[in-house]
Amino acid sequence: MASPASPEAPPPAFPPAPPETTPTTASHAPPETPPPVTPPSAIPFNFPETPLLVTLPTPPPASPPPDPFPALWLPPRPPDPVATLKWFPEHPPDLLWSPWSLSHPPDLLWSPWFIGRPPDLLWSPGRPPDLVCVSVLQCWQNVSVADVSLSASCHPLTCSLDENDELWSSLEEPEIINTKEFAERFAKSTTPTKRMVVSETNVKKGKAKRVIKLLDGKRSHAVGILISSLHLEMKDIQQAVLTLDNSVVDLDAIEALYENRAQPEELEKIKKHYQTSDEEQVKLLDKPEQFLYELSQIPEFSSRVHCFIFHSNFTDAIASIQRKTEIILHVCKYLLEKDSVREVMGLVLALGNYMNGGSRARGQADGFGLEILPKLKDVKSRDNRTSLLDYIVSYYLHHLDENAGTEKSIFPLPEPQDVFLASQIKFEDLSKDLRKLSRDLAVCEKDVLTVCTISSQEHMHPFKEKMDFFIANAQKEVIAMEHQVISARKRFCYLVEFFGLKPRSGEQEILPGHVFTLWFEFCNDFKMRWKRENKVMSKQRLKEAQQSVRTITAVKKIETRMAHANGLKERVRLKEASLTTN
Fold first, then answer.
1. In the CATH scheme, what architecture does the domain 217-298 have?
2. H-helix or E-strand containing 84?
């Protein structure tokens, strides 16, 4: 409880707080205009609704400790260890801590001078910038002994309790030994603002050097994208072009370089700039222009790269033509030579003649057009449950295929996928591709001759050896492929004559697309039903085998024989009988 101060040691007068009313915690703000400080002798012993003023008892006089932060105090500090409490109810202690109070017991609370002061005035300028202010304990709730006593006395259901028996009156707070460690652990860290030096400011605000551009905007942008996507050095590109080696620079990068190479008018502008400008002006040239100029410095760049690209793509091109011709040859050979194809076609002819036996126009035909093959699945039975194609497949498996229902059963027609690929091929396209290969090979041969004529001996090898070997083999492969295409065309024409096909109206010849499309539809429908029927037959064979095993096991005969008179079993039996009788 409050007691009047001793007249021998009157409390000092403190300077009023500055008119700063901005609180650090928005939810607990002190009054905008704090009341004037009242001397301790004038404090009445009651509890008004205005802020509470309490003066603590004066302990024995003691010498004040040295001030660790002398620059903190603008006004004179109150004499130790007496302090005056000016307490605003429910006000958090975020503005009440100072370095001086950290080294003192918490019961010596606060001077009015601290109320309303911003945190930046409560610390010494010599304190490190990372420990600006001690963190606020947000869950802290202030309890005043006087407030507790008052609330207890006013409540009708509260029992009377002596002030000395209360926890807060008798609780002793230990002295914090290492306050520096505590402050460093729970201090708020702030990022110091970096002040820019005047010289740095002038450098950053300086004018950027002008870049010289000779290319069109879109063209320069495209070359810039190419440079950023390659991630290659010019020496690697030069090495790959000179030696025809795509281990470091792949074929896609080589093609991109060839497509974006400098055109004659662009190269003329860039070379003119290099010849007429000094060293500083050359350095100011934009990167796309410099890159194109460096590419042009590779000996015979365009001719070498064209040969490089043709050399790499030739193998794929000739392989594509070979694959197409082989598919046509394979399908034609299967349809012409396989006995199973003849069996299926004979079955279709027999069933068709039987169905059309009463028609003079359609009955007893010697053959039929291939256009009927895709339509067999549309001819339904009387009960509309099966089609003519279903019956043909079932009849073939049950009567013509000896291995039906087993793993040895083979599909009697060409594979639908092969027939489909054959239907996509045109002999005109194959001939055009071969003619283009022949023209490109001739151009490549001229480029090789140009490079070998202009280049020095240093840059001629190994380009000359590799390209001479390639051209010699490429010419042989082109000639061989021409003969293979002619052979495939002849084989297809023989297939057309074998099945008695005639060109449709308005067409001079029969194309592979028309013939193989009819066969693809028929083969695809036939295979789906063939697989389903083959699976049914396989299950039926398995059931029959299991039934036969059960029948053999049930009818098994047990034979009995008479025991031999002098055998071991007979002697044992006689011995057991004699023992039983005795």
1. Up-down Bundle (1.20)
2. strand 84-87
